[in-house]
Specification:
With about 240 residues, the chain is an alpha+beta fold. The protein has helices at about 5-15, 40, 65-90, 120-130, 175-180, 195-200, 215-220, 230-235, and strands at about 20-25, 45-55, 95-100, 110, 115, 135, 140, 150-155, 200-205, 210. The longest helix is centred in the N-terminal third of the chain and has 28 residues, at about 65-90. It binds iron/sulfur cluster (2 copies). One iron/sulfur cluster binds near residues 182, 216 and 217.
């Protein structure tokens, strides 16, 4: 049977335009909620490949929600194309490979809470693939790119060596900036109350368009351009 390595996958992901790529082994999903384990999506799954591409940070400088909306749409397209292409290439090598949508559609929707869940939580999978840790704003924080990453993924039956887990803390000690700044009071430090966020973070425009109108929890975070170490951490790193 054909074999493939984690390094080969990461190299190809980079060639296709990903800024980072990590692998999670199936064992890292042992605590996944019922129905959201990778094998519930692809029975033969042995590894989860997570791909990430970065936002242009300058997007956050514009007061216009159109700029942020445009970039978000392009990132969804980019990650979907990337995981689609990589899945095709893995199949040519003889593996099963299922691309995961980087945004919609939701597989599960709870109308009473306006709460949606995708086929797999990509940000939780990204933590398991070593790409970072979740901040109190519930966004992935990566040591190099901060919270400015969009995610895609592939489930495959290829047995791949898992990437090392991130060994840093996402949030600065005592920081609560995103919790206090959220205009919808949608953040509690561990989860996001989607029904509260939705009412603020998206809106229709007068011409019948649609924009993402809030990104405060991403923008206000001191970690949005990459990991800033606390003084304690800096001292430790400088020896
Ligand atoms: S996008 Fe806006 S409304 Fe939603 S959680 Fe972030 S700060 Fe709050
Ligand atoms: S703003 Fe502060 S509390 Fe919120 S995610 Fe960033 S570092 Fe964590």
């Amino acid at each position: 049977m054909t074999t493939i390595t984690t390094e080969t996958i990461q190299l190809r992901a980079g060639e296709l335009g990903a800024d980072c790529c990590g692998i999670a082994s199936l064992e890292r999903f042992n605590d996944a909620p019922a129905g959201f384990h990778p094998t519930a999506v692809l029975k033969s799954c042995k590894s989860v490949i997570i791909l990430a591409a970065r936002f242009p940070v300058s997007t956050l400088l514009s007061p216009s929600p159109a700029a942020y909306t445009f970039v978000r749409h392009r990132l969804v397209d980019k990650l979907d194309s990337l995981s689609f292409q990589l899945a095709l290439e893995l199949e040519l090598l003889g593996f099963q490979a299922l691309p995961i949508p980087s945004s919609d559609p939701y597989d599960c929707w709870d109308d009473s809470r306006s709460h949606g869940q995708g086929i797999l939580s990509l940000k939780h999978a990204a933590v398991r693939a070593g790409l970072g840790q979740l901040g109190k704003n519930t966004l992935l924080i990566n040591h190099q790119w901060g919270n400015m990453l969009w995610l895609g993924g592939i489930l495959t039956d290829a047995k791949l060596a898992p990437s090392p887990l991130a060994d840093y803390q996402a949030c600065l000690p005592e920081c609560r900036l995103c919790l206090t700044a959220c205009p919808a009071k949608a953040l509690d430090g561990t989860t996001i109350i989607q029904s509260k966020c939705r009412g603020t973070s998206s809106k229709s425009t007068p011409g019948g368009g649609f924009v993402y109108s809030c990104n405060i929890c991403r923008k206000i975070c001191p970690q949005h351009q990459g990991l800033k170490q606390s003084k304690h951490e800096n001292n430790r790193l400088q020896g």
